[in-house]
Amino acid sequence: MRESPTGRATVKSPSSGALLLAVIPFMAMCFSVPLWDRIDPMVLGLPFNLFWLMSWIVLTPVCMWVAYRIESAPDRQGEA
After folding, report:
1. What is the rounded distance in angstroms from the CA atom of residue 38 to the CA atom of residue 65?
2. Looking at the DSSP assignment, which residues form a beta bridge with residue 43?
3. What are the boundaries of each domain within the chain?
4. What is the pLDDT of residues 20-49, one digit of tens each?
5. Angle of helix 16-30 versus helix 48-71 axis, rounded to 10
6. d(C-alpha 59, C-alpha 7), whole Å
7. Cα–Cα nearest to 12, from 20, 21, 3
8. What is the reported pLDDT for 33?
9. Does residue 11 contact residue 1 with C-beta atoms inside 8 Å?
10. More confident residue, 1 or 25
């Protein structure tokens, strides 16, 4: 957050790349269910649907970290 000349804090809007990285895990876990809602095949000894959800639980922090890196990049520092 930055302080404007009037003394109020301003918040910059997120970039479209960061928003996309935040939406991908949500869409993969919530709206792709009809595509993978089955037990077979087994992956690493787990039913496919459980493996899919567990993999996205692990990948979500990675996506959020990349979104954070995009937002905190040096070229974004000069934007208001």
Report:
1. 31
2. 46
3. 18-73
4. 988 999 998 888 878 877 777 888 888 888
5. 170
6. 39
7. 3
8. 79
9. yes
10. 25
- Displacement of CA 5 from its chain's centroid (Å): 33
CB 21 within 8 A of CB 70: yes
Q: Which residue has the tokens 């935040």?
A: 22
For residue range 46-77, what is the model confidence (pLDDT) as tens digits?
Answer: 888 888 889 999 999 999 999 999 888 766 55
Q: Are 46 and 54 in contact (CB under 8 A)?
A: yes
DSSP string, the chain: -EE-TTS-EE-PPPPHHHHHHHHHHHHHHHT-HHHH--SPSEETTEEHHHHHHHHHHHHHHHHHHHHHHHHT-HHHHT--
